[in-house]
Amino acid sequence: MRILRINDWTGPPGGTEIYISAVCRAFQELGHPNRVVSITDASEVAHYKPDPWEEVIPLRPMGARRLMEDMSEAPAAAHRLGEIYDEFKPDIVHLHHFDSLFTPVANFVARCKAPVVMTVHDAKLVCPIATLVLPDGTLCEGRILPRCQFTGCEVGFGLPYKLEQDRVFRRLVAPHISMFIAPSHAAAGFLARHGFGPSKVIPSFVDIPEGVLASPPEMPSVAPTVGYLGRLEKYKGAGTLLQAVALARKAIPGLRVIIAGRGPYEEALRQQAHDLGLDKDASVEFPGWVSGKAKEEFFGKIHLLAVPSEGYENFGLIGLEAMARGRPCVGSRLGGIPDWLEDGVVGLLVPPHDENAWAASLVSAFKDMPRLNRWGQQAKQRYLERFQPSVQITSLLAFYQDVMSSPKK
């Protein structure tokens, strides 16, 4: 089986790119060749090292690109996609994102003879800001419409661009997709509500080093510590976590928090930590982005991981990273997080946007350390049983075979 994947991203590569690389590696090892076409802006290409099976189509900066390339045929990109298709002769085409160069990609998909599938890695198909959460914190049913300009959401001048993208997707792409992959039941739900389908739920996965999986899930012998690891953006909820930690310290003296990651909200978070007095006795730490050895050190310092998202999360891969290392989680009851965070078994689910509820959950977790240890052990067992790469690759392979044996749309 030969699989051609098309993905696009702007800014540093993230969880989707790591996931695609891991999937390709697994399929290559099983004897199924992969080819990846990555569409990204030129500023990232300079220091990006593609996989051996990956080709990068560079883009011009966003501002000049929208009218010049994304919303037109962009002949050079369209021609190259056709050349790759003819050279590789895929049995199946897997679309991972529909954003940059969306018109040439849409026309390419419409002309494909091989069956086409698509993974929804976020909510961009039905929400112009991909959060499915209104400014007051209430959940939105979604649908990209002119009314989005009046909801208070920060759609800015990009709404006409998103409206055109939605029109092109519904007209040229959706009719040719044999099946969607939804990483969570929440994603499958919004696909069905908006007329996209059929879909199959196949959770995402992360590669975990063998040495990590072989290590016992022991808790660190340090002061009670909660960790956060991810992009530092406002909707990720790290600000609410800082407020919750400050409140919880009244009942859990010495409670610490480690905020790992980079992003546009970092300075605001540092200022908030200062204003809350968390930096006076080293109760907060900002180590930046962590990977490799630094990531293992991060997990080695924390007792639980917080996933305080306040915008829609399609799945939440960082939770699997924690579970594989025997760390329980406290996460928002939002999007795909409940698919892996079973409340009271591997941690706690908490309403988003509510620092008092978050503080109460942290106090509850740290007041019962034997239970916290038990959650950590159960988290690792749950990862091994349900979320190892081998389990998901088997499901994905069966999915491809099923699509290929079914009549093409």
- The low-confidence parts are none
Straight-line distance between termini = 20 Å
Which term fits the overall shape?
A: globular
Number of domains: 2
Largest sheet: 7 strands, parallel
So what's the CATH class of the largest domain? Alpha Beta
Give the C-alpha Rg: 22 Å
Number of strands: 13
Q: Helix proportion of residues, in percent?
A: 40-55%
What is the CATH-assigned architecture of the largest domain? Answer: 3-Layer(aba) Sandwich
| Mean of all residue-level pLDDT scores | 90
Name the beta content range: 15-25%
Q: What name goes with the CATH superfamily of the largest domain? A: Glycogen Phosphorylase B
CATH third-level topology of the largest domain: Rossmann fold
Largest beta sheet: strand ordering: 3-2-1-4-5-6-7
Structural class: alpha/beta
List the total number of helices.
Answer: 16
Topology order in helix (H) and strand (E) letters:
EHEHEHHEHEHEHEHEHEHEHEHEHEHHH
